[in-house]
Specification:
By secondary structure, this protein is of the alpha+beta class. The chain is built from 13 helices and 41 strands.
Length: about 775
């Protein structure tokens, strides 16, 4: 390896990094309260070992578990809500759908996904929603719930708290085994809802404000689905979606065996699977779609909270079905859920060097001048908003076609199986005589390089196969040396952060992981706790389907549901273990084999009706006391002689269709609205109806056509800008915009209070030409 001479700038940056790291570690060590941990993983040191298969397709079930609603938290006394009466004499399922807001903070919080310093929320493009679907057998004996949530990923703490509240209200009706929580993986949602140190650092602290908002929204969506249950039918359909994906690690994909790659026409999974839900009269109830794509059309320069391309597809589908309703309202619910998206990008123009225009689609995703920071993949639009619309629009249109032609009805029993597994200590049977082991969590060098969808902030490179003496020394001094055991276990990945050996102030990564599967007739929904690559997903689906077939359940369809229950980064194949996705495969090179073994055990238990015999497994911890956000709460202040909501820049008298109407107000911090939810939107666009002399709301802040920007000033001063990008469908007429906010007030020696306010712009006219 060539010696690298540090420039003055590099030396300064390194010194600055060391100082920042030291301060961060010191602050975290001081502010975290380790005594607040509920340690429920006393069995976590026991290896999860399975006996070798004795016959083709068979898998031992030791270490698998079935849960019956217990979580790691001590809940209040159970107050069971009476079960609504179920009509039993019909063919199909009881179906309930529900949708609820789970946006959380839209300011003073890091956006979760790119881990880019300074990418804090500064407003909102679209609201984030939790979409719940409950299915029960006609006699009500078995039920399952699938919840798709517009967030980056589901955290373990979030799931445990949701289940605890469900248990408090419904008893054992909704449990660890029959409720799946899945994140869409938008990279434009707020962070701050995690308990493991790596994610707490990435979120710049824990935000109880956002955590509570999300938990409340998720639970509310399930409650709505529970109340709305009615007899109905479910139809399944499949079809390819073209023109929206590329594989962002094609060189890694090529390391998979040629014979395996030859079975597939593409290095991404193009198939979309949809469920169409209707009542017995054929009235539409809802849609669940699974498709493998990263919601990163909105890039890491974005500061507006939004649900990205998959959320835009949901927005279009729900607007189509809920005519006359504002976005986020109406009875119909459409979820576009994540799948094995690990190496799949929507930025279909591919990676190019932004300084030269040349392709950088190479093994290191690096440019000759500028390195990896210059290698960026671009979407098909003229900006990230337009790219989101194009990609999301194509996905929506294909789902609409599959929905219209869906005719294969799902029938048969419902089943659910779940396990808690110590993924840092699973013995994997490679064949009847040889085993391998998963590892304590660790992140490799290529993790710090980022991807072509969002490069890292330091000059690391993808595909790095050896460590760097400088960074190794810096890590060793700050965090201690990784053990020889963990280095050996993760080979050939060079370790940058040995997170599985870092426990202060709390563990840096989870050991205990949920492994879960539910079946709806001939459909198996595999809930994966991370991001499987394309080939990893194919192998898992194939193994699960084969296991079902071995035990008499032929022609099962297996769908992978991504980012479920707890986040554990990426899962690559053994052969792909080299670039960013591999460096982020935290349990080592045999992670995929371990998951295949574990999910086969669940499939066998369901197929042989032996789920009740599965062992319980070690419960995960729940950390009660966590560091608060490093961004303090500040009292809001209006300029002298002004009030909150005063108009600083009025609307123009007239706008044409296609133009942008804009008004600037005296603002207050939008995060206040996540505490005091007096208003359900930051803005409305209203049209004057002359016949009734009233103003009719035509858009809110969940509408794609509106944008709410917050501009933070000094000493509690701020402005709010509301934009309406007037669509071609807008009717000519008189309009106005309203601003809804909350300001924090604190009198001397009194606690702070959050007070609502609202303001209205002057009226303006929209004309067509």
């Amino acid at each position: 390896m060539a010696k690298h001479t540090l420039s003055t700038l590099e030396a300064f940056l390194i010194f600055l990094l060391v100082m920042m790291t030291a301060v961060t570690v010191a602050l975290l060590s001081l502010l975290f309260i380790t005594s607040g941990t509920i340690e429920n993983h006393k069995d976590s040191g026991v290896p999860v070992t399975q006996s070798p298969p004795t016959t083709p397709g068979s898998t031992a079930t030791q270490g698998s578990t079935l849960t019956h609603g217990s979580t790691a938290t001590q809940g209040p006394p159970v107050t069971t809500t009476p079960e609504p009466p179920l009509f039993q004499n019909f063919s199909g399922y009881h179906i309930g759908v529900g949708r609820a807001d789970c946006t959380g903070q839209v300011a003073d919080i890091s956006l979760m996904g790119y881990s880019k310093t300074g990418q804090n929320a500064r407003g909102i493009l679209t609201r984030l929603y939790s979409r719940a679907f409950i299915m029960a057998e006609p006699d009500g004996s078995n039920r399952v719930a699938f919840v798709s949530i517009d967030i980056g990923m589901v955290s373990q703490r979030l799931r445990l708290e949701v289940l605890n509240r469900l248990q408090s209200k419904y008893g054992s009706l909704y449990r660890q085994d029959n409720v799946i929580l899945s994140g869409t993986h938008t990279h434009s949602g707020p962070g701050g809802y995690f308990q493991y140190t790596v994610f707490v650092i990435a979120s710049e602290g824990f935000s109880n404000r956002t955590f509570e908002y999300m938990v409340t929204g998720i639970v509310k969506s399930i409650e709505m689905a529970h109340k709305n249950m009615k007899p109905g039918k479910i139809f399944i359909n499949k079809g390819n979606v073209e023109g929206v994906q590329i594989n962002r690690s094609p060189s890694s994909y090529l390391w998979n065996p040629p014979s395996e790659r030859a079975r597939y026409s593409s290095n991404t999974d193009k198939e979309m699977i949809i469920l169409k839900m209707v009542d017995l009269n054929g009235v539409d109830l809802g849609l669940i779609s699974w498709f493998a794509i990263h919601p990163v059309s909105m890039n890491n320069t974005n500061h507006l909270v939004n649900s990205d391309n998959m959320g835009y597809a949901s927005y279009l589908f729900e607007q189509e079905k809920n005519k006359g309703y504002l976005p986020g309202q109406g009875p119909y619910v459409a979820a576009f859920a994540s799948s094995n998206l690990g190496d799949v990008s929507p930025n279909i123009l591919g990676p190019r060097c932004v300084n030269t225009g040349d392709s950088c689609d190479n093994a290191n995703s690096s440019c000759p001048i500028g390195g990896s920071s210059m290698c960026i993949a671009m979407g098909p639009g003229h900006d990230m908003f337009n790219s989101t619309q194009i990609i999301g629009g194509i996905i929506y249109q294909r789902a609409k076609e599959l929905y219209a032609s869906a005719s294969q009805e799902l029938t048969g029993p419902l089943a659910a199986a779940h396990q808690w597994v110590n993924m840092s200590n699973v013995t994997v049977w490679l064949n009847s005589t040889h085993t391998a082991q998963t590892c304590k969590p660790a992140l490799g060098y290529s993790f710090a390089a980022g991807t072509i969808d969002g490069f890292g902030s330091l000059n690391f490179t993808q595909g790095t196969t050896v460590g760097d003496p400088f960074w190794d020394t810096l890590r060793d001094q700050l965090l201690g040396k990784p053990s020889e055991e963990i280095k050996r276990c993760h080979k050939p990945k060079p370790i940058l952060l040995h997170t599985g050996e870092l426990t202060k102030p709390h563990p840096w990564h989870p050991d205990i992981v949920d492994v879960q599967m539910i079946t709806v007739g001939s459909l198996a929904i595999i809930a994966i706790p991370g991001e499987f690559t394309t080939m990893s997903g194919r192998r898992l689906r194939e193994a699960v389907q084969a296991e079902f077939a071995t035990y008499g359940m032929q022609n099962m369809t297996a769908v992978i549901s991504g980012l479920c229950n707890v986040y554990t980064h990426y899962i690559t194949t053994f052969e792909e273990y080299q670039r960013y996705e591999a460096a982020s495969t935290i349990y080592g090179p045999h992670t995929l084999s371990a998951y295949i073994q574990l999910f086969r055990a669940l499939a066998k238990a369901i197929a042989t009706d032996t789920v009740a015999n599965l062992s319980r497994g070690p419960e995960p911890p729940y950390f009660k006391q966590l560091i608060a956000s490093l961004i303090p709460n500040v009292v809001d202040r209006a300029p002298l002689g002004r009030n909150f909501g005063d108009v600083l820049q009025p609307a123009k008298p007239t706008y044409r269709v296609g133009e942008v109407a804009e008004v600037i107000f005296v603002g207050a911090n939008p995060k206040n609205s996540a505490e005091n939810q007096t208003h359900q939107t930051f803005l409305t666009v209203e049209k004057y109806e002359a016949t009734s002399a009233t103003w009719r709301i035509v858009h809110n802040d969940a509408s794609w056509e509106t944008r709410f920007y917050w501009h933070k000033g000094l000493l509690g001063h701020s402005n709010a800008t509301i934009q309406w990008h007037i669509p071609g469908t807008a009717q000519p007429g008189i309009y106005r915009m309203k601003y809804f906010g909350h300001h924090r007030k604190q009198d001397f020696l009194k606690p702070a209070v959050i007070l609502p306010f609202e303001s209205t712009s002057s009226a303006f006219e929209v004309v067509t030409s």
